[in-house]
Amino acid sequence: MTTELILTLNAGSSSIKFALYEAHEPMRVGLRGQIESIGGAASLQLNAIGAPKQVRPVDVTDHAAALSEILKVVGSASGGARVIAVGHRITHGGPDFSGPQVLDSASLDRLRRFIPWAPLHQPYNLEAVDGAARVFPGAIQVGCFDTGYHRGHPWVSDAYALPRRYYDAGLRRYGFHGLSYQSVVAQLTDIDPNLANGRIVIAHLGNGASMCAVKGGRSITSTMGFTALDGLAMGTRCGVIDPGVLLYLLQEEGLTADALSRMLYRESGLLGLSGLSSDMRELEASQSGPAREAIDYFVHRIRVELGALTATLGGLDCLAFCGGIGENSAEVRSQVCRDLDWLGIALDDAANRESQMRIGLGRTPVFVIRTDEEGVIAHAAMSLLTR
Questions:
Q1: Is residue 81 predicted with pLDDT exceeding 70?
Q2: What does the H/E/C string look like for 164-198?
């Protein structure tokens, strides 16, 4: 009998992650990998079960080239097996899409209308759907929406104080990184179901960064809004900003809309503040004043949002870090958690340095959870197949 596989593709602003799963219960992953730093010093990382990790440079100047390289690797790794479903992270589902669904031409046309709402991600997400459909024409293509987990917020968490017609037209706060938050909540449920049912703040910190207040396993509010620009400072994105600054840049500095968009999405955040890099690893290794100030600002915004989210929840039962920075930067976690005894938070310094799963000593548990967006996507695809 031919082995059946599920492929997941998770296209980000500068990387594409992928994984191959056996399409039966329990679903086992046979291969994970990613291409990161697309357009720069790109590298392909492969983690095959039972084999040592492989890392090699690849010459990929854009997402299309990276996707082509990944699909070649997947085709070789699958051997005689058959890919029956490809699950995709879709960043913006807009007001129309919440739960996972099979993608067809009509839904893809609708999702393309949201490209201006997520210009760093949506084009590459949909490009991956088109590419996978060409290589695996017999497989169903399944979309899983990063905004979906945040549907059902209280109205006050979604609305902007603009004329009501804009909310009715879809201009509202959506929140992102929903697949990551789903993964973290599921893992916390396995660890401690009672805790997972309580009041949790999850900090997804990476090149894209956001935080989410979770209560009873459901998203209550998120730091991101209509687009993935809002909230925390990120690798190259500004985070929260006075809209009057944007008016000033347009009216007084003479920036065009395209130039402003480029600055906010690609030239700001850690890169803009440091003048050095968007990569937290490089900033932590640097001794320059602007690099340290960029880290300080990043941490400051996290602490501000932690207080706001805790107030929204009416208290805090658990803090969890995830994402590339959240999972790997002991320095950032330490700075975020300093002097938070009023929240019951204190760190075990040794556990934090080693990025252990439990790093808290106080009454409020603190976790480092390695998010698994691909696992969430694969199980969603499997669920649609079995339906």
A1: yes
A2: HHHHHCCCCCCCCCHHHHHHHHHHHHHHCHHHHCC
**Helices of type H across the chain:** 63-78, 105-112, 122-135, 155-158, 164-168, 178-191, 193-196, 243-251, 257-266, 269-274, 280-285, 289-313, 323-328, 330-337, 349-353, 373-386
Q: pLDDT tens across 324-365, in order?
A: 999 999 999 999 999 999 999 999 999 999 999 999 999 999
> What pLDDT is recorded for position 1?
55
- CA distances 8 to 88, 255, 322, 349, 382, Å, are 6, 39, 20, 36, 11
pTM for the structure as a whole: 0.94
Q: Which domains does the chain have, with CATH numbers?
A: 4-145 (3.30.420.40), 192-368 (3.30.420.40)
| Identity of the residue numbered 249 | L
Query: Minimal CA–CA distance to 176: which of 240, 123, 229, 215?
Result: 229
CA distance 168 to 187: 36
Q: Calculate the average pLDDT of the chain.
A: 94
Q: So which residues are the catalytic ones?
A: 146
Q: Let me know: does 229 contact 173? Beta carbons within 8 Å.
A: no
> pLDDT for 109-154, tens place per residue?
999 999 999 998 999 999 999 989 998 899 999 999 999 999 999 9
The DSSP result for 365-379, as a single string, is -EEE----HHHHHHH
Alpha carbon distance, N-terminus to C-terminus of the chain: 22
